[in-house]
Amino acid sequence: MSIASPSMPAAPPPSFYGLSRSDLAERLEGLGVARYRADQIFTWVYRKHHRRTDAMTNLPGDLRQRFSDVCALEPPRLASVHATRDQRTHKFVLALADGARVECVSMRTERRLTLCLSSQVGCALKCSFCATGLMGLQRNLSAAEIVAQVIAMGDHHGWRDERFNLVFMGMGEPLANYRAVMDAVRIMNDARGLNLGARRVTVSTSGLVPQIRALAEEGMAVGLAVSLHATTDELRDQMVPVNQRWPLGELLPAAREFGLKTGRRVTLEYTLIAGVNDSPADADRLGRIARDLPSKINLIPYNPVPGLPWKRPSDDAVTAFAERLYPNAPAVMVRKTLGGEIWAACGQLGGLSPGE
Question: Catalytic residues, which ones?
Answer without folding.
Answer: 103, 346
